[in-house]
Amino acid sequence: MLTEDAKNSKLFSDVDELVKALALRTVEAVDSVHQGTHHMRVVVYKEDGEVNTDDLAAVYNIIYPRYSVIFGDRDLELEVSSPGLQRTLKDVIEFSIFKGKLVRVYSTSLSSYIVGKIESADDSSVTLSDCQIENSGEKRDSMTLEYSDAAKAKLEYRWEA
Predict the structure, then answer these.
(1) How would you classify residue 26: left for phi > 0, otherwise alpha for psi between -120 and 50, otherwise beta?
(2) 15: which of 29, 49, 124, 148 fits an S-S bond (Cβ 3.0–4.6 Å)?
């Protein structure tokens, strides 16, 4: 089930402000403490191209010093990565981040996967264009799905044209 945790997360919003200065978007920012070590994972996305190692290094170099001071009493392990080609979407905010990308969403009301390009997303729904409902083979120009109807979703990548 997709969550709505990102919009209420102080860590997500703080990291996103830092990352926006590098012309990147934060997809995920989570942290946890395990055996005295603070683990932090940040996933970033570039709207106008692919995330490269220089981008990841720049994000690391901005976030690590700041959060090593904030979490001063613990060791910090920071992982910075790109979303990958077939990322499983975890939060509804990711639909707006990946606008224009091909996505595969499981609709509970249709009991089928729907593949389409993200046209727009708001607080309650996502609109897909050039859609195909996999079970029936039905094609639609546009379709709006409520987030409550979307059981799971992931980025879709066409390996062959």
Answers:
(1) beta
(2) 29
